[in-house]
């Protein structure tokens, strides 16, 4: 990510962008009861909506983003709610994940609406046995939906599924969904695990 991109995100968060969207990603909220508990990583966390949600649910959370302003907003929210989150400023497009996340392993990794397909393989190596990756990406579509207009930031059909590599896919969906704020979004959604899945309640959520 270029310096200009970092400044762009800083300015968005400084201006209060996304303040009206404090809710977690719906996929994560809907499936949380089925996911393994323990240590979690939120990739491209922004102002921390998913990191805050996971910390509130009892996870030990690391949250990574390129924008220090976004991280500051997240840290303020965490302090207001009495939550402990490890906020990490890093550009994962220029710095290897192995450097940023040295000696770290996770029970759950969340990567939402941040396009960096090569990173998924590196994140898979950070999953403990039975741990899960939850990934959601904007999908290419001709429909009038929210999200980036630049097709470079939208995935082709099955692109996210292919990026899962050797992970065991537990859930995959592509289509138009309604965001919690009522706006339509074209999304590819994936839940995959490393090895045999560890479900919180022992139920099989594979579809």
Can you write the helix and strand succession as a string? HHEHEHEHEHEHEE
Q: What is the residue-averaged pLDDT?
A: 89
CATH superfamily: Vaccinia Virus protein VP39
* Number of beta-strand segments: 7
Specify the number of helices.
7
CATH architecture: 3-Layer(aba) Sandwich
How do the strands of the widest beta sheet line up side by side? 3-2-1-4-5-7-6
**Strand share of the residues?**
25-35%
**Alpha-carbon Rg, integer:** 16 Å
Uncertain ranges? 201-207
What is the CATH C-level name? Alpha Beta
Structural class: alpha/beta
Q: Please estimate the helix content.
A: 25-40%
Counted up, domains total 1
Classify the fold: give the CATH topology: Rossmann fold
- Shape assignment: globular
Q: For the terminal residues, how far apart are their CA atoms? A: 35 Å
Q: For this entry, what is the oligomeric state of its chains?
A: single chain
Largest sheet: 7 strands, mixed
Describe the structure.
The protein is an alpha/beta fold. The chain has a single domain, classed as Vaccinia Virus protein VP39 (Rossmann fold), CATH 3.40.50.150. The chain is built from 7 helices and 7 strands, in the order H-H-E-H-E-H-E-H-E-H-E-H-E-E. It has helices at residues 3-14, 26-31, 49-56, 68-80, 97-100, 117-124, 159-163; strands at residues 39-43, 60-65, 85-89, 106-112, 127-138, 168-178, 184-193. Strands 3-2-1-4-5-7-6 form a 7-stranded mixed beta sheet, covered by helices on one side. Helix 1 packs parallel to helix 4 (68-80). The longest helix has 13 residues, at 68-80. It starts with a helix and ends in a 14-residue tail after the last strand. The model is unreliable at 201-207 (pLDDT under 50).
